[in-house]
Amino acid sequence: MAEQDKTTEKKILDAAKIVFLEKGFDGARMQEIADEAKINKALLHYYFRSKDKLFDAIFKDAFQQFLPHIAEIMMTEKPLFEKLEAFIDSYITMLSNNPHLPSFVMHEINRNPERIVNIIKGSGIKPEFLEMAIQKEVKAGVIMPVKPIHLIVNIIAMCLFPFMARPIIQGFMFNDSPEAYKKFLAERKKEVTSFIINSIRKK
Amino acid sequence: MAEQDKTTEKKILDAAKIVFLEKGFDGARMQEIADEAKINKALLHYYFRSKDKLFDAIFKDAFQQFLPHIAEIMMTEKPLFEKLEAFIDSYITMLSNNPHLPSFVMHEINRNPERIVNIIKGSGIKPEFLEMAIQKEVKAGVIMPVKPIHLIVNIIAMCLFPFMARPIIQGFMFNDSPEAYKKFLAERKKEVTSFIINSIRKK
DNA sequence: GTCTATATCGGGATAGAC
DNA sequence: GTCTATCCCGATATAGAC
């Protein structure tokens, strides 16, 4: 859809997402969002009554996108290691297209921790489901006995962290070379997958 | 040292650290820092000419603290797996005492990526050193052939992430129970260490 | 629905007394 | 070195014309 064909509301939401994700709520300016959307400030308030309400719309959406769709992949009938590979691949791909998502969400949930409870409650995700799926594999003897919660946190952490830490990784580890960072990201799907499988595979 | 015995400068720095780490630069208010330090706003500007300069002092300090002192531990003569255990233990302990450090640093380096280059340049840390240390262990046959950079990123990621994601982990995974979250953190040193060693140990 | 102009207020920074 | 009072700008939000 061409830029000028979008509805004004859509233009605002797209612009707000760009600015909020880069600057965070406190750093974002309504003027900058208006400029990005190529409209004027007053229109922002016509469509969304306040900065808060506009932010809520963006955050809710971003958080849903950020939440790993790990459950869906776990539901498929593939063997565990293939599920794992599929999840890591799709999650890192999504983050590559939304590189600011991790640091944005992490910052905002720390700024306002209460907010997320309501959002997640509404999403219908249940943590027990995931835990049980992993426990099942342990009992079946496919993987070593691991505490599910730690395994889940480890997987998510290794996927997210490289995006949040880009300035350090690229600027410090790779002498500020964007190409080296891109190469690193490309390798990562395979590296993370095999790192995890190596760790939990039954010996 | 009792609160009232501290020099004014120290009181300001302590207060600023608390407020900046919780709210970030954009969310922090000079008034709140003054209140926290139990002095008035004008005195802040007397000691540090601007919010920017005060922030710089805090950030530089926080970032140094945040940078894993992984190199020092690698220098010791212990076997690799013991070094690994020692590092994870000391890093998670430090973060437990500074739980806001990870999300603060991550947010601020994304808000202003250029800044960190200068800070790291001045710290004298060299990434090659770490890479070589890991390569040596690979050649010596102690561990599986792994790409050093990915291993390093994985280790740091698994240490930091639980602190940044506390609202999600505690609020969602643990039904908002601080006790369950604390227990989870306590388990984590052992879990992360064995997770890594399991993955890279020569089979 | 979209614009220009303006009200209002919060917050960083400074002046000046003590 | 520490305080009170104040300046002034920038940012959210609204009024009102078209």
Describe the structure.
Two copies of one chain form a homodimer. The first copy, chain A, is mainly α and 203 residues long. The first copy, chain A, has two domains: 1-49, Homeodomain-like (Arc Repressor Mutant, subunit A, Orthogonal Bundle); 59-200, Tetracycline Repressor, domain 2, CATH 1.10.357. Chain A is 78% helix and 0% strand. Chain A is built from twelve helices and no strands. The first copy, chain A, has helices at 8-27, 30-37, 41-47, 51-66, 70-75, 80-97, 101-111, 113-123, 127-139, 148-164, 166-173, 178-200. In chain A, helix 1 (8-27) packs antiparallel against helix 2, helix 1 packs across helix 4 and helix 6 runs antiparallel to helix 12 (178-200). The longest helix of chain A is centred in the last third of the chain and has 23 residues, at 178-200. The radius of gyration of chain A is 20 Å and the shape is globular. The mean pLDDT of chain A is 93. At the A-B interface, helix 1, helix 7, helix 8, helix 10 and helix 11 of A face helix 1, helix 7, helix 8, helix 10 and helix 11 of B. The structure holds a DNA duplex (18 and 18 nucleotides).
